[in-house]
């Protein structure tokens, strides 16, 4: 499978969490940045030649070809599977997310005691 989306951050995070390769087509805001992150991390594609938002009319055949490219590329599936596992380790008990939250709680406690 694969997920064609606008490149919104939540869509990217959800795709990685589920281990699904991504094709972005950004329209505004930070979507270019997140689309570039998708491309650079190797979890999917961003057809930059399609323009920004609705600047260009993209024919159905071109869209289909890029989806086939996404679906047929084993390296995207491998990379997103690696990132899925890393995300789940980070978010799990004893992971880096828990450590960061614990440090923040300790900092708040320390600040509360000093006031």
Task: Describe what you observe in this structure.
This protein has 115 residues and is mainly alpha-helical. The chain has one domain: Rossmann fold. It has a three-stranded parallel beta sheet with strand order 1-2-3, with helices on both faces. Helix 1 packs across helix 4. The longest helix has 18 residues. The N and C termini lie far apart (54 Å). The model has no long low-confidence stretch (mean pLDDT 93). It is an enzyme of class 2 (transferase). GO terms for molecular function: hydroquinone glucosyltransferase activity. It comes from Cajanus cajan (Pigeon pea). Keywords: Glycosyltransferase, Transferase. Belongs to the UDP-glycosyltransferase family.
Q: What is the topology?
A:
Blueprint: E1 3-5, H1 9-18, E2 22-24, H2 31-41, E3 44-45, H3 60-72, H4 74-91, H5 96-113
Parallel strand pairs: 1-2, 2-3
Helix pairs in contact: 1-4
Offer a concise description of the structure:
This protein has 115 residues and is mainly alpha-helical. It has helices at residues 9-18, 31-41, 60-72, 74-91, 96-113, and strands spanning 3-5, 22-24, 44-45.
List keywords for this structure.
EC 2.4.1.218; 5 helices; mainly alpha; 3 strands; transferase; glycosyltransferase; Rossmann fold; single chain; 115 residues
Low-pLDDT parts are none
The count of domains is: 1
Q: Name the overall outline.
A: elongated
What percent of residues adopt helix (DSSP H or I)? 55-70%
What name goes with the CATH superfamily? Answer: Glycogen Phosphorylase B
Strand order within the widest beta sheet: 1-2-3
Largest sheet: 3 strands, parallel
SS summary, helix count: 5
Radius of gyration from CA coordinates: 18 Å
β-sheet strand percentage: 5-15%
Distance between the termini: 54 Å
- According to CATH, what is the class? Alpha Beta
CATH architecture: 3-Layer(aba) Sandwich
Which quaternary structure do these chains form?
A: single chain
Please, what is the average pLDDT?
93
Structural class, please? mainly alpha
Q: Could you tell me the CATH topology label.
A: Rossmann fold
Order of helix and strand elements from N to C terminus: EHEHEHHH
Family: Belongs to the UDP-glycosyltransferase family.
InterPro entries: UDP-glycosyltransf_plant, UDP_glucos_trans
Pfam families: UDPGT (PF00201)
Keywords: Glycosyltransferase, Transferase
């Amino acid at each position: 499978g694969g997920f064609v989306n606008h490149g919104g951050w939540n869509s990217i995070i959800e795709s990685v969490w589920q281990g699904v390769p991504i094709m972005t087509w950004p329209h505004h805001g930070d979507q270019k940045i997140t689309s570039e992150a998708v491309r650079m991390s190797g979890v999917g594609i961003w057809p930059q030649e399609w323009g920004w938002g609705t600047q260009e009319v993209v024919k159905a055949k071109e869209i289909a070809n890029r989806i086939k490219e996404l679906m047929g590329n084993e390296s995207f599936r491998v990379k997103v599977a690696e990132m899925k596992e890393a995300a789940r380790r980070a978010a799990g008990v004893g992971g880096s997310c828990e450590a960061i939250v614990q440090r923040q709680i300790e900092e708040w406690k320390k600040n509360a005691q000093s006031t």
